[in-house]
Each structure stands twice: as structure tokens, then as C-alpha cells.
Amino acid sequence: MTTLKSFTATGATTGQALAALDEAVGNTPAPADFICVFYDAEHDDGEIFDFLQSRFTGKAILGGTSCNGVMNQEGLGGQRSIGLLVLEDAEGNYGTAAVRLEGDVADCAERTLHAALENAGCEGELPELVWIYQAPGQEEAVIEGLRRVVGDRCPIIGGSAADNDVSGQWRQMGPDGAITDGLVVGVLFSSGGIGFAFQGGYEPSGESGVATQVSGRKIMAIDGEPAAAVYNRWTGGAVAGKLEEGGNILADATMHPLGVDVGKIEGITSYLLIHPDKILGDGCVSTFASIAEGTRLYSMKGEKKRLITRAGKVASAAAAMLPGGTGSLAGGLVVYCGGCMLAVGEGMPQVARAVAGSFEGKPFLGCFTFGEQGAILGRNAHGNLMISAIAFGA
């Protein structure tokens, strides 16, 4: 039997927020097998970890900072909020492990997955799901390392930790406390089953071209033309002011990402989204995800209404995948892109309500990330401006 409880609290100081969280959890220690914690980057990691250790000693812990707080079934937590998801599943197995990403990142990820499996008491077994939370920047290498162990035989779901202003103040929380530039891996063997979904809330605008010159996360040319000029044309001049000297285009590009065709689901093309973040002085476009040279890129467009409603649809899709159907739903986890969250702005309470409605009011915890990982058409991948959800069966 799997049960979930989700709590959020807000406070001007970390101590105040934790006092409110402590009151919400209650005086009786909650049974727990897996703990997720996400929080505004302005909070103190050490105080949060000490609280978790006092309430949930020795449990599998995974989490980290989330852009401007969290959301759950009660609504949007908002700035300076802390969110906690407590999962109890005596018949399942859960384990987490963490590492600082340095040197061979893929090797770091591979070793950390093995450590998480060992901590779950399931060394050498295939988990039902791998849940990750990491520093932005090396997501593809992390997935490469994890795939050495599990391939695409189980989904790899998660997000890249975020702060409130893209200044690099993001952190990750694992079983030994907080780290920076790190990776936390969780392995989930749930007795009630798990459903998952990974989608974006954008549609093609009509233009496309082949990335003819690429270096990692830098697109230099599309169809042989400078990438920045092509992207500006596709977006109707959205970044015209940055073409000559370059500059940050995160906000400008949020409603104009690039997309990669990854195949069709029920006859409808699915796209993995890529968020351009800078125009460089040499006419190149840098992004938050890597693509291979020769990839056809599609100009995508978004609108607030779609970004608000999509989260609920992704949650519904995850619940529908449960072995026992939506009637067996115990609750879930949601990863919602921080860029989308900032673009939606005052509409975010509607996003929280949409997810709560799709999860039928069951407990869930949602974080806001600077990169999203998930399984799309049977392959684990990293994307931007995406939404992922997992649903736990009771």
C-alpha cells in the first residue's frame, strides 16, 4: 500500500517556514520511505536538512532549490516556500545517492545510480523509475551515464535545479545534505506502480531548417546562414535588438523555443523543446540543451493559456498510465519549467489548480526547474520548457 502526504509552508526566514512545516506535519513522526523536498533558493539548506534528519532519520531524500518556491494540491506556495512530499510504501524499495559532477560526468552519474540501487537494497535490479535532480549544464552527459545501466528500459524523470534569477545559486539535496554542481539520483520500486508523462505546451509556427553547424550547446548556422539571423526571422524580429552585440534572450525566447521532431503519438507529432538563452556576438545562438549537427529544427510558439492547461493534461496522462488506472492514484510529483512559470506569471495559481484537478485532489508536489528530463516515445531525453509528471498507484 502506497500513501503520500504533501506539505508546503512559507516564511520570511527558513526557521519560520520550517516551524510552520513542522506544525503541518504534526507531532507524530510520519512513516516514510521516500522524501522529496523542494524550496526557494533564498532558504538555508543546512536548516532544511537538519529538519529532515530530525523528522525522517535515515530515509531516502531527494530535492533541491526550485525557482520561486513550489506548488502542491493546496495551491501555489509562492516565493520563500518549502515543499515536502512524504511517501510511505512498506512493500516497495527506494534509495537515493548524490555526487558532485566533476571530471567524467557520465561516469559520475553511472556510479551514483549504482550507489542509489545499493542504498535501496536492490543492487543489480532494474527500477521502475529513476528520478533525478541536478545542476543545469551537463544533463546530456548525466543521461548518457544513467543509460549505461538502465538504457531506455525504465524512464528517467526529473529536473535541473533552479534559483530565482539565473545567477547560479541553485543547489541539490541528497541523503547527506546539500551540494552544488551536483546530481541526486533516486531509484523507485513502487508496490502500487508508477505512471509518467513528459510533454511540452507549444506548437509549430511553420518555419524549420537544418542545423548545419553546431558545437555542443551553440548553434552557429541554420541552412548555412548565421543561426541568430534565422532565429530572429522565424520569431518576427523578437531578438532584433541583440543581433549586433549579442545578449541574453531567455525572456524573449520563452514563447519562441526551438523544437526537434521525436516522432508521433496517435498520429500527432511530438517535439522535444530547446530554449535559446543568448545571442552571441558572432551570430550564434546558445541554448539550454545540445543538439546534433544535421538536426532539423522547428520554430515553435506558445501562449499562456496553453502553458496553464498543459500541466493538468500531463498529470492526467501520467495517472492514466497507472497499472490500476486513475482509480488507483495515490498522488504524484510534477516538474514544471521555471521559464514557463515566469512567463505565466499571475496565472500560476491556475496551473496548480489544473494539476490538483487532474490528480483528483490527491497529494502532489511540484517544482520549477531550469531543464527537464523525461521519457518521450520510449527514449530518455533532456529538454527545456517541458512538463513532466509521475503518478504513484496506491
Head-to-tail CA distance between termini: 6 Å
Q: What is the residue-mean pLDDT, rounded to a whole number?
A: 95
| Number of domain units | 2
Structural class by secondary-structure content: alpha+beta
3D shape: globular
Biggest sheet details: 9 strands, antiparallel
Radius of gyration: 20 Å
What low-confidence regions span 5 or more consecutive residues with pLDDT below 50?
none
Helix content: 10-25%
Total beta strands: 27
How many DSSP H or I helices?
A: 9
Q: DSSP strand (E) fraction?
A: 35-45%
Structural features, described:
This protein has 394 residues and is of the alpha+beta class. The chain folds into 2 domains: 3-199 and 306-393, no CATH class; 203-301, no CATH class. The protein is 25% helix and 39% strand. It has helices at 14-25, 45-55, 105-119, 139-150, 227-234, 250-253, 304-320, 338-344, 348-358, and strands spanning 3-10, 34-39, 60-65, 71-72, 75-76, 81-88, 93-100, 129-134, 156-160, 172-174, 177-179, 182-189, 194-200, 203-215, 218-222, 225-226, 247-248, 258-265, 268-274, 276-279, 285-287, 296-301, 329-337, 364-369, 372-376, 379-383, 386-393. Strands 14, 15, 16, 17, 18, 19, 20, 21 and 22 form a 9-stranded antiparallel β-sheet that branches. Strands 1-6-2-3-10-11 form a 6-stranded mixed β-sheet. It is globular. The termini are close together. The model has no long low-confidence stretch (mean pLDDT 95).
